[in-house]
Every structure is written in structure tokens, then in C-alpha cells.
Amino acid sequence: MPELGPTTPSRTASRTRRQVVTLLAAAALTGSTLPAFAQDFPTKDRPIRLVVGFTAGGGTDAQARTVAQKLGEVLGTNVVVDNRPGASTMLAASEVARAAPDGYTLMYSPSSTFAQNPHMFAKVPYHPFKDFTPLSVGGRGPLVLSMSTSVPANNVRELVAYIKANPGKTSYASFGLGTSSHIYGEAFTRQTQIDSVHIPYKGGSDAAKDLIGGRVQYMFDSAPSAIIAAQSGKVKIMAIAASQRVSALPDVPTFAEQGYTGMDLPSWLGFFGPANMPPAVVKKLNDALVKVLAMPEVAKFYRDGGYEAGGNTPQEFAALVQKTHDEWGAMISKLGLPKQ
User: Fold this and answer.
1) What are the Cα distances from residue 327, in Å, to 69, 114, 264, 332?
2) pTM of the predicted model, to two decimals?
């Protein structure tokens, strides 16, 4: 599979336009009439594997399992979540990219797999556009700034003041190198001119455990994971990294409300399959996913975690993937973050 290497701005723009056209053209095929062979997908004796690039127990895993159960009921087969953490979701993504495009291997993945990793790593074992089939966005929701209650602060400005009073003695966790939680951490560090140590983990659940235990002082976490961690009474949610507050956390202000800018880039999780999936299978999976994500109990589960349940067409999702890739790329370039 191709690796992403350096290109000139003009070549990058040209390649980006070609990628969007290719994605949208491929996705448009899913609107065709379902041929007879698709009626056999999926068979009851063969489960669908839903790969997640994080450890079990985190917010992403919980969403995947909620959808997997209902998806299995709609499709009439078992949908099994397979946790493959490591390398900032690249292990999971590369495994799915190599899988047979028959609809039996899917992935539930955060936007960082497609929007941040290609800009943050010199060697990416997959191509974010050529190696996958977008199926549907799963949920849209922000990252939030969570802080250990061991830190004597009640808002972002007080947290910044505490870190500046203790240079080099505080640390922040992330889901892994190159993930949105890492990039937001770096953006926060640059904007506030603080001295804090980055500690990457293999997923949000492991990072949250150390935040709860007071071994790290703060982190940019997904809203569902942060809400679960806050229930321990040892974590406080300080700010929303989005343009507006979320219904699950009505009393938590955004970064902009607290005087910090640029902390509101799009964040989502979505469903993908390998490249070159049969259009009829893509349509069947998309129809099922949209149906599941519209179920009141599923929508409530997402909403309680600070997310909005998704559900859109492959064409719409392909365009969102491209837009998110471009916006995060611009932010990473502005920060001057070196590739790992």
C-alpha cells in the first residue's frame, strides 16, 4: 500500500481534487439497484467483524458495541467488535485496508485516522482515501479538556496559571502520537506558552485511568470517555473543544468562551470498509447503519455521551473525510509539528 510522502503544494492540491472525485464517484455507485448476489450478504453463519483501534472500555469502544448489537439485529447476523489498539489507530486501519472487500471486515474509527495521521507520521501503512470505502459517519462530537481534581484549578485560566507556576512538573495524556488529543494538547501548549510533558497512550481508556489516578494532570479526551471518568469524582471537565456547548455538559463552557481560539476543529467517528467493496454491499451496510443510528435508544446513548448520532450517505461521508483531512492538515502545518 502506498505511503504518504512530501509533495509540492500544487501537486497536493491536484491530487486532493482527484481523490475527492474518485471517492465521490465510487460512493455514487452505491445508489444503484441492489443486484441479486447482494441478497446473500451477510450470511447468518459468518459474523461481521467491526475493528476498533482502541482498547476495550473507552468511549469509542462503547459506541462501537452499542451499534454492533443493533446492526447485527438489522442484518440478521452477529457483529463482533475486535479491539486492535496501537500505533495511533494505524494497526487497526492497516488491517482493515488489507482485508477482503466483501463486507465482513469493517472499522469504526475516529477522524484522526484519516485527518491527522497522514500529516503527523512519515510512514503511514495505508492511504486515507485509496484504501477505504466510507460507509457512514457514526457520531459527531467534540473533544473536551479534562483535569485531575488533584490540580487546584476551577477553569482553564487557573489551570494555565498552575502549570506556569510548576514548569516541567505537569503532564498531559493523549490517545497516542498524532491523534487529535495530542494535536490539541500541542495547540494548547503553544497558545498558552506552558511547559508540560506529553504522555501518549494506546487509547482513551488507559489514559483516563492515569488521569483518574492523578498520574497525569490533564488531557483532551472524547466527551463520552470524559463523562465516564468524571463520574469517579476525581476528574473535572474544564472546556469544550467546539464552537458551542453540548447538551450532555450544559454547564461546561467552550474554549472560545474562556478566551482561547482555534480549539474547535471537527471531530467525528465513522464506519469504513476496505477499498473496492461491491456497491450493492455498500448500500446494504449504509442502509442498515443509517437505520441503527436513527433508533431512539442509540441516539440517546450518543447524546448522553456528548455526541450526536450520525447517519449519512457514503457520498456525504466521503466529502466530510476530505474536508476534515484538509482542515486538520492546515492546523498541523501552522503549528509546525514535525512528522514522527
Assistant:
1) 33, 12, 11, 9
2) 0.80
